[in-house]
Amino acid sequence: MKVLFASSEIFPYAKSGGLADVAAALPLALSKDIDICSIMPLYGFMDKKKLTKTDIILEINLGGINYTADVYKTKDAKVLTYFIDAPLLSTTKNLYGDSEAYANNDIRFGIFSKAISLLAKLLHVELVHLNDWHCALSAFWLKDSNIKTVFTIHNLAYQGIFKRDSLDRLGINQSHFEMQDLEFYGKCNFMKAGIKYSDRVTTVSPNYAKEILTPKFGCGLEGFLSFHKNKLSGIINGIDTEVFNPKSDDLIFQNYDVNSLNLKIKNKKELYKNLKFKNAKTPLFVMISRLVEQKGFDLILESIDDLLKKELNLIFLVDGVSNYKKTFEDIAKKSDNFEFLFGYDEKLSHLLYASGNFLLMPSKFEPCGLNQLIAMRYGTIPIVHNIGGLKDTVHTDLKKCGQGIVFTKQTKKAFILAINRALKLKNEKNIQIFDMNCDFSFSNSAKKYLKLYKEIP
Ligand code: GLC
What we know:
Strand content: 15-25%
CATH topology of the largest domain: Rossmann fold
Largest sheet: 9 strands, mixed
CATH superfamily of the largest domain: Glycogen Phosphorylase B
Bound molecules: alpha-D-glucopyranose
CATH class of the largest domain: Alpha Beta
Oligomer: single chain
Radius of gyration: 22 Å
Structural class: alpha/beta
Number of strands: 18
Helix content: 25-40%
Number of helices: 16
Shape: globular
Distance between the termini: 13 Å
Number of domains: 2
Strand order of the largest sheet: 3-4-5-2-1-6-7-11-12
């Protein structure tokens, strides 16, 4: 079986969040069983010299305008990846926007989606696996071909919603502007194309697949998703356990494994050399995240005074344009047990996973979440809100992988109680060992995707 895996971001080429990690790890896991290659945009900030230019030229026609795209590919990566170099799509400094989303993202990702469908035909693939709204229109453009499509929702909060006249500029007939199609409250919605026109729709955890059928988590699409629920399922994400392996990770200071857990603290001591914290014995709580409402920062703001009165150290490593930034910076300036580190830093994030005692994940909603999986792999105990993929991956007993501290209500009281439970833990080491022995790799889930690919008639 030949598959083309499409994503707007793939680690290490471009990353804004967990999507990039999954778009790297899942095709790699699948490549053991099938012939799979990937496709993503070639953004303006990427170095073309590291890639090889192919002789493929794609004539992308949208609404009467031609956007000719060059196609690059990786030199020697484990998964062959194609990069689309096209006007508008490839001229930007960032992936999706600077302080605001780029106004022409409809055309940019329209170009990308059209490129996916053209390349899929050119490469004679049997199936295209599309991820999130940036690729969703491909399902629409492939609907009359014999190529099968799977659409995965990584986060329903981002749907690609644009004004009605986008359809004209994309060359999509206005007859599709209706409720059971691309229309959404007077605008057009790219995500709906992925849901309606794909053969199968998946999301990144079984629990989130159920949640999105309800008004609380459905982001306005609960009715539409319920209509299509026979083709909807949830498959839990995994992580690349080679990249995230405390035993061999060269981004951390001191390697360790389950048999040498006592060495973990050396990472914390190294980390503290550049921070205001002194005592490595004080429990360290880390939060590694995008600074967006989804991740539970309102709850943190409400609770942070109480939190910082406790005998603990707290570090945030966060990024993204956000109103929360200044507030947290001011709090950090005034407290001696809170460090606020801003900016995307892959290396530092690994050191934090290796240094922490606990990872905070009080998300309001969480399609899957990868940080809790990475944390457990590094023997850092997650403290999570019991929703989405967090509910599927973090448990409170030693029966199911993995184990952590779970709170059910997103209230200050429940959150602080969870922190207290963490501080009073007696069997911290047992939990760490249990979690480090769990298998969070993509291999089980890759098998489920494979089964899904194969069952499409
Ligand atoms: C998005 C979701 C996150 C998920 C990731 C990868 O970033 O918010 O929960 O783990 O995509 O699927």
